[in-house]
Specification:
This protein has helices at 7-17, 63-66, 97-110, 119-125, 144-147, 208-215, 222-226, 232-236, 284-303, 314-318, 325-347; strands at 2-5, 22-29, 40-45, 70-76, 81-83, 91-95, 128-133, 157-162, 166-171, 184-186, 243-250, 253-263. It is of the alpha+beta class and 348 residues long. The chain has two domains: 2-66 and 84-186, no CATH class; 208-248 and 263-347, no CATH class. An eight-stranded mixed sheet has the order 3-2-6-7-8-9-1-10. Strands 5-4-12-11 form a four-stranded antiparallel sheet, with no helix packed on it. The model has no long low-confidence stretch (mean pLDDT 93).
Length: 348
């Protein structure tokens, strides 16, 4: 069933929903961007419909609701510890199709990966229902159509903001019908993006021999100079899951404090440092290779569910060195083609 609501009616429904749910959506924060007099759009809890940013893509992904930048895991003293419970109120998470599809990847990594469920992620995951925000498109860094993440049916409700007609809502989950009992019914089915300005078509790596040669290819050396290893791309990524843990002690008592899970990045120097100060990937190009192959080969090789990347383009938007993942994949495709030709000549 679908409904149309004025701004006032929509806020009344939201008010009723917030009695049961915490509602998160993309929200604009004026003058808080990385450049002077620029805004930033990130996920935050909302209390009115006017706070929702419908037109522009959020600067940071929806994963910040499910996997916060830092999260307290447990509190400890010298004698005992207890888990941090946090706010266990159910969540309504508003996001575009790519954001919702990204959560499937996150769930695959945190839960059902080798038979282990991460309890801290699962606790939140089981409390979330998705509200699909119809995507207006228009971003020149998006390539969700190429990744097959431009559509989804995994949502409880779908919404479209029409400046003339107000808010249109499709309700798929019957448990939400009661919130719209007094609302005007209408015909509304969300539309999905069918074409992006940018297209990315990763080339399949046919065998391990080609993969090993690709890892050693000179194309990665370009990033030794270009990439500054800041990790901005992975923080903005919809599907990256790397983290570290830190103990925060209280005052002078080192036996009392809390352990936190903190977002980390495979692109930052020292992330893979081992005992003896040894790093497996000490060059920026090697770290770039690891990230790109993880997104466009390794994930599918393990789970057989397609690419890990959902084509949101946030990594392109955030890179201070203007490194494009789309251009990088194109260069990788050319390297694979070249290696395949070399393999063919040797076979003859």
């Amino acid at each position: 069933m679908s409904y149309t609501l004025t701004s006032k009616e929509a806020n009344q429904v939201l008010k009723e929903l917030r009695k049961t749910y915490r509602v998160f959506a993309p929200k604009r924060f004026p003058k808080q961007g990385r450049y002077s007099d620029t805004d930033i759009i990130k996920y935050d809890e909302i209390s009115t419909v006017e706070e929702i940013e419908f037109k522009e893509k959020s600067t940071f992904p929806a994963k910040e609701v499910m996997s916060p930048i830092h999260r307290t895991l447990f509190y400890f003293t010298e004698e005992e510890y207890h888990e941090a419970k946090g706010n266990m109120k159910p969540i309504l998470l508003l996001g575009r199709a790519c954001d919702i599809n990204a959560q499937k990847v996150q769930a695959r990594i945190y839960c059902g990966n080798g038979g282990f469920d991460d309890p801290y992620y699962k606790r939140l995951h089981d409390q979330v229902k998705y509200v699909l925000m119809e995507c207006p498109g228009g971003s020149d860094t998006c390539f969700c159509v190429s990744m097959g993440t431009n559509k989804t049916d995994d949502y409880a409700m779908a919404i479209r903001m029409d400046e003339e007609c107000g808010l249109k809502v499709e309700v798929k989950d019957p448990s939400f019908d009661s919130y719209f009992a007094d609302s005007e019914k209408c015909r509304f089915t969300p539309k999905f993006i069918e074409e992006n300005e940018l297209s990315v078509k990763p080339k399949k790596i046919k065998n391990k021999e080609i993969l090993n040669k690709l890892k050693k290819d000179d194309m990665w050396r370009e990033f030794d100079k270009r990439c500054i290893s800041c990790g901005a791309c992975t923080v903005a990524c919809s599907t990256c899951t790397c983290f570290t843990t830190r103990d925060i002690v209280y005052g002078d008592n080192t036996e009392a404090g809390e352990r936190r899970r903190v977002t980390d990045s495979c692109q930052v120097a020292g992330f893979d440092q081992m005992a003896g100060q040894r790093e497996i990937r000490s060059r920026a190009g090697d770290r770039m290779r690891y990230k790109v192959l993880h997104k466009f080969h390794d994930y599918d090789a393990r789970f057989h569910e397609g690419n890990m990347c959902v084509g949101c383009g946030r990594c392109i938007d955030r890179c201070p060195e203007f490194i494009s993942i789309a251009t990088t994949v194109d260069k990788m495709n050319k390297a694979i083609t070249r290696i395949e030709k070399e393999e063919g000549k040797q076979a003859k």
